[in-house]
Amino acid sequence: MELGAIGSTYNGLTGKSRDDFGEGKPYIQYKQIFDDSKIDVTRFEYVRIDTKEKQNRVLFGDVFFTVSSETPNEIGTASVLLDNVDELYLNSFCFGYRSSHQILSPWFARYLFRSELFRNEIVKLAQGSTRYNMSKAALMKLIVGLPTLPEQQKIASFFTAIDQKISQLKRKETLLEQYKKGVMQKIFSQQIKFKSDSGREFPKWEKLHGNEIFETVSNKNHNSDLPILAITQEQGAVPRDMIDYYITVSEQSIESYKVVEKGDFIISLRSFQGGIEYSEYKGICSPAYIILRAIQNIDSRYFKYYFKTTNYISELNRKLEGIRDGKMISFKYFSDIVINVPSLPEQTKIANFLSAIDDKINHTQKQIDKAEVWKKGLMQQMFV
Which pTM was predicted? Predict the structure, then answer.
């Protein structure tokens, strides 16, 4: 049946000035609709409402669609209000849809309107060239197949249980990340101290400058057959094809690229979150980067974690040179910073401890990915 036959639409707030925002009544933001199929009631912003606008108050079970976007694939993204909110309103870049709950369950609508089948139909309605729009009239003519209300409720309960499991895993991942951050701060400030396997205390940490531990290398002896590495702040130095990062590079320019060995560090051009990136891969990178290689016997994993501590990043940012957005960290400035260096056995102890936390985080992320893929596959089979 057509959506227009079982429900009606209403507009979001229009004609609001900048001064209207910041206090008043809660309203649903454009971005909230993209983030999840269920509106998060803890993230509302506020806006002043006129008496005449109260007729467009949002109610429990209403569905919200985005009507304007820079890409057609984002048009008509839907989210549902599944909580009771006393007085709530909708952003002007969206419109609301209110159906009969005796025909369409709000919990079922949450998944129906986010299904691949429905999304494919929505994208066909996008109109425009530089910015895409969708009319309410066109959406209301879309035909959807609906099972009986009891079956809708069973389907919704099934997918809600999956979502709850995914949320639990994401919460676990967040807690592990927070624990790691806190324990790193205590380890590198030596509030937490490690002992040897025999129970003895390790020697006092040395304070060394960067050039006492590392040197710069610029080996361009390669046949251009090594993978080109992308230098990222999230994953370190990784092959570009692992992160879908493609830039056309001529064979002539590749000849000037530098060889990176596994265990090397690369001084990144940007240092907003830290500019010393670790490579677990052998490859080549742009000659614009400075490659660091240890001149001492070290556990490079210790320094991988150390270079991401808040204190070290703060020191690094003080040493920035250049005036543009992407500021250069020179080897000289890197060498000026004093680094706390434990004995090699303690470096390994620390690295093993933090690596074990990372393993748990990675395992949890894989569980999340697996659950989300499973859910997507089930939805494709369910909504056909």
Answer: 0.81
